[in-house]
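Final report, Chapter 2: Outcomes

The project's central promise was a pipeline that accepts a single protein chain and returns its three-dimensional structure in a standardized token representation, suitable for archiving and comparison. That pipeline is now operational. To close this chapter, we reproduce one record exactly as it appears in the project archive, with the input sequence first and the structure output second.
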Amino acid sequence: MAENHLDKKTRQKLKEHLEQCERCARLSRSFSRAWQTVFFQEEAGFSPASLVNLMRRVTAYDEHSSRWQEILYPAWRFLRPALMTLLLLAGIFAGHQLGKISPERGRPEDSFARRLLGTLEDIPRGSVADFYISRQILEKEKSQ
């Protein structure tokens, strides 16, 4: 465990304070429990044999992954340009196919503006709607 580096006088003052101050005593107990937990984990840590086994496993993993890198890197160097070419050709083909499709266009007389104007022309003369529309048109003509 840790060595005690406090002299007797300081230890005695600290002990008296902890006996009188509940807040500091609680804090000291929680630090003590945490510190014991840390020491317990260190004691339950790796043995030299388990450390050697861990190093063997890491080395085996590195060797295994380096073999795959030796195989995949040249393949990737060849496949990357081929994949990019394939994507480019697919884009050209898709654009060509989309260019063949003609957008469906309605007749000009079916447009929204034409329908709106047609609706305004169908308003009966002398109706309330005709009064408001005529009044706005007259006010606009007067202001010009």
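Archive annotation: The two ends are 99 Å apart (CA to CA).
This record, like all others produced under the grant, will remain available to the consortium after the project formally closes.
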